[in-house]
Amino acid sequence: MQPRARRLATEGRTLHVHKELFVGGRWVSPSTNDTIEVISPHNLETIGRVPAAGEADVDAAVAAARTSFDSGVWSRLPVDERISVIRRLHDLYVARLDEIVELQCHEIGSPITFSRAVTGPAPVLTLATFLDNAKRVPWEEIRPGVTGLDIIVRREAVGVVAIIVPWNAPQFTLIAKLAPALITGCSVVIKPSPETPLDSNIVAELTAEAGIPEGVVSVLPAGRDVGQYLVSHPGVDKVAFTGSTAAGRRIAAICGEQLKRCSLELGGKSAAIILEDADLAATAAGLEYASLANSGQACIAQTRILAPRSRYDETVEAVAAMMSAQVVGDPFDPNTQIGPMVSARQQQRVNGYIRLGEKEGARLVTGGAHPVTSQERGWYVRPTLFADVDNSMRIAREEIFGPVLVVIPYGDEAEAVRIANDSDYGLAGSVWTSDTDHGIDIGRQIRTGTFSVNQYWLDINAPFGGFKASGIGREMGIEGFNAYIEYKSIAPAPPLPA
Ligand code: NAD
């Protein structure tokens, strides 16, 4: 199948123009004339345009998903057959990986080095890992019942799944849901964020090319109102959501009211605990990725740095030196470490938090809310470090989602653990120490879904997700299938007495 976007070459740049929506595996005319303009955060030029899905498009996509699911055309295929189609999807994805990586860079403004090293390979690895783990799931098992008769325990697809993803890692968050949902036999309606609809349309093309039957996959770029309409739709059995905690609460409330299944991957305010024995130069270098990856627009970013009072000034100095050396600029320049924020709204939000930090009495060590002078256009902000921060300040409690870090002093390790756990969030965390075993022991005391020693790393073969307001449920690992499974027990009748 040929790509459906018209790539118009204008003044040396490419404009990705879609006129149709992918509904039930087919490209169709949208129900309205509304469009979404995709703007480069770097130079504010238009890079693409897609139709904005409306409620009638949601109705059509859910109807197609419902019909395909209930017919069994995909949901009742032997799992091995679904696996071989998803393996084809994996291979097709790999063949277009460079294009997907570049498109995401245009949409989000993430530095190309980060995209090539992380956001490009991660969805591929996720697809491959789910394909491997699918072989280890006991889709149907027989176990002895208490009566002495065998019971059949089946893992069946949950049904029609609404997949709603954010803009900051659109492919990774999408594939983490799409792969287990499709392997399990679900039909899906995907709603990408309006900032990043172009890369999802490539996935739409690939699902058709891989041979996923009609009806099973739809992709509807739209904003939050249409997203909420999709969540509320009676034809949807389950919502798989990644995004802000505020939106997650709203979605959970609707799902609760309707007794709809939902899994939520939400925000974070993770702590990096620096112990007295840490190598500060190595720690500051490690925080460059752990705290500032994707220009700080990462849910797992280690944004609260907890430093021992005995080494407080040294720690602030080392982190400040790392932050002020960051190269801010054109995402496609391989030297760039920090790109622009995704949107004007995000730039205003981050600068608003920087001003708030100053008002709250934190000490601005480097950065600030004034414009990045080397960039004439674009939604750039300065990598900013605050010291002398108290954990009760809003800049220490709320997710900023930009390159803004705070350093909080602590007395002893027990206090460090207490401060790390004193957060509404519980997504990720890290400890920086020369004693790895001791670091692991600290990890056992932290209430977060993932934790790392001397780095932050999310391993795709292990469960990922949040405690507390960071979410409900887990993605990745073999556990990542659970969100798409309904258990069914079948008890054969005992033989009738003679
Ligand atoms: P957002 O909540 O504003 O939007 C996320 C998606 O949900 C978008 O597609 C949006 O259109 C849609 N949406 C918003 N409100 C909705 C509603 N009421 N009903 C249905 N759909 C709705 O978040 P964002 O600004 O796009 O993304 C940043 C957030 O995502 C941050 O909080 C970040 O921490 C979080 N995030 C979490 C993870 C994780 O795995 N835990 C990963 C990436 C991002």
Helices, strands, pairings?
Layout lengths: L5 E5 L2 E5 L3 E3 L2 E3 L6 E5 L6 E6 L3 H17 L7 H17 L1 H12 L3 H8 L1 H14 L5 E5 L5 E8 L2 E5 L5 H15 L2 E5 L6 H13 L6 E3 L4 H9 L5 E5 L2 H14 L2 E5 L4 E5 L5 H13 L9 E7 L3 H13 L19 H16 L3 E4 L17 E4 L6 H4 L6 E7 L2 H9 L3 E2 L2 E4 L3 H9 L7 E2 L13 E2 L2 E2 L12 E6 L8
Parallel strand pairs: 2-6, 9-10, 9-12, 10-11, 12-13, 14-15, 14-20, 15-18, 17-18, 20-21
Antiparallel strand pairs: 1-2, 3-4, 5-6, 7-8, 8-24, 13-23, 16-17, 19-22
The protein binds nicotinamide-adenine-dinucleotide (NAD).
The site of nicotinamide-adenine-dinucleotide (NAD) has 30 residues, from helix 8 and helix 9.
Keywords: Oxidoreductase
Pfam families: Aldedh
Protein name: aldehyde dehydrogenase (NAD(+))
Query: Which ligands accompany this protein?
Result: nicotinamide-adenine-dinucleotide
Radius of gyration: 24 Å
Weakly predicted, low-confidence segments: none
User: How many strand units?
Assistant: 24
Q: Structural class per helix/strand content?
A: alpha/beta
State the oligomer.
single chain
**What is the tally of helical segments?**
15
Strand order of the largest sheet: 16-17-18-15-14-20-21
Helical content class: 25-40%
Organism: Mycobacterium saskatchewanense
Protein name: aldehyde dehydrogenase (NAD(+))
GO molecular function: aldehyde dehydrogenase (NAD+) activity
Active site: 265
Characterization of this structure:
The longest helix has 17 residues, at 55-71. The protein has a seven-stranded mixed sheet, with helices on both faces. The chain contains 15 helices and 24 strands. By secondary structure, the protein is of the alpha/beta class. The protein binds nicotinamide-adenine-dinucleotide (NAD).
